Amino acid sequence: MAFLQTVWRMLNDDGARIIFYCIVSTNAPISRFIERMVSTYSRIGTVVIVRNDQDGSRAFAADIDGRPEPQIDLRHQASGIQEVRLMRRARLSALIADPLPGYRLATALIATRVHAFARQLAAVSIIDPASLARINRWSLSVPKLMYFIRQSNNATDERIRCNGRLHDAHQAILAEDLTDLQLLTAAKSYREAYATWLSR
C-alpha cells in the first residue's frame, strides 16, 4: 500500500484525477472503514461509496446515511444471471455485446445492471455520458420477473419469458376495482401462467 500511495501522490501532483471506490455491503458495520478511506485518501482523490446489495436485502448499516461522499448503488444480481456471465471466458463488454445463444434476455439483464451503474457514474461526473449509449443499446427491453433466477438452467430466454408472463399475470390479479368476471379471468390467466412456468 505504501508503494501505491506513492504512485497516487505522483499522479495527483501531475494533475490526474484519482477516484477511490469504497465498496460496502449489506449487514456489516462500515463507518470505521469509510472513515479510514476518507482520512487516508481524500486529500489526493475523490472517495465514492459503492453500496453493493449482494444479497438483495438492501440492509445497509444506518450510519451510511447522510454522509457527504457521493454514493452509488450496485443492485443485486440473481445468482443464475451471474452464472450466465461466467459461462464464457471473456470480458464483460464482449459478453453483453455478443450474448450466448439462448441467454439473450439474461445477458440483457446484466447489461441493464451495468447501464444503471454507469448512469450513476455519469451523474457524479466520473465518466462521459456519451459512453452510455453503447451500453444502452445492449440493454434490451426485458420482462419483470416474478421469482429470482437461482440457477443458470433457469436463466434461458424461454424460462425468463415464462417468469415475466407470470409476473404480469400476478400484477393483473392484484389490480383494484376488478369485477367478478374480470377477477375470474385474471385468476385463470395466473393459473395458466404458473402451470407454464412450472413446466419449463
Key traits:
200 residues; mainly alpha; three-stranded parallel sheet; elongated
What do these coordinates show?
This protein is mainly alpha-helical and 200 residues long. It has a domain at 1-76. It contains eight helices and three strands, in the order αβαββαααααα. A three-stranded parallel β-sheet has the order 1-2-3, sandwiched between helices. Helix 2 links the parallel strand 1 (19-25) and strand 2 (46-52). Helix 3 crosses helix 5 and helix 5 (104-123) runs antiparallel to helix 6 (132-138). The longest helix has 20 residues, at 104-123. The model has no long low-confidence stretch (mean pLDDT 90).
Question: Class by helix and strand content?
Answer: mainly alpha
Report the sheet-strand fraction. 5-15%
DSSP strand count: 3
Helix content: 40-55%
Strand arrangement, largest sheet? Answer: 1-2-3
N-to-C series of helices and strands: HEHEEHHHHHH
Separation, N- and C-terminal Cα atoms: 51 Å
Rg, please? Answer: 22 Å
Low-pLDDT runs:
none
Return the average pLDDT rounded to an integer. 90
Reported for the largest beta sheet, the result is: 3 strands, parallel
Shape descriptor: elongated
Number of helices: 8
Question: Helices, strands, pairings?
Answer:
Elements: H1 2-13, E1 19-25, H2 31-41, E2 46-52, E3 71-74, H3 79-85, H4 92-97, H5 104-123, H6 132-138, H7 157-173, H8 180-199
Parallel strand pairs: 1-2, 2-3
Helix pairs in contact: 3-5, 5-6, 7-8
Q: Summarize this, please?
A:
This protein has 200 residues and is mostly helical. It has helices at residues 2-13, 31-41, 79-85, 92-97, 104-123, 132-138, 157-173, 180-199; strands spanning 19-25, 46-52, 71-74.
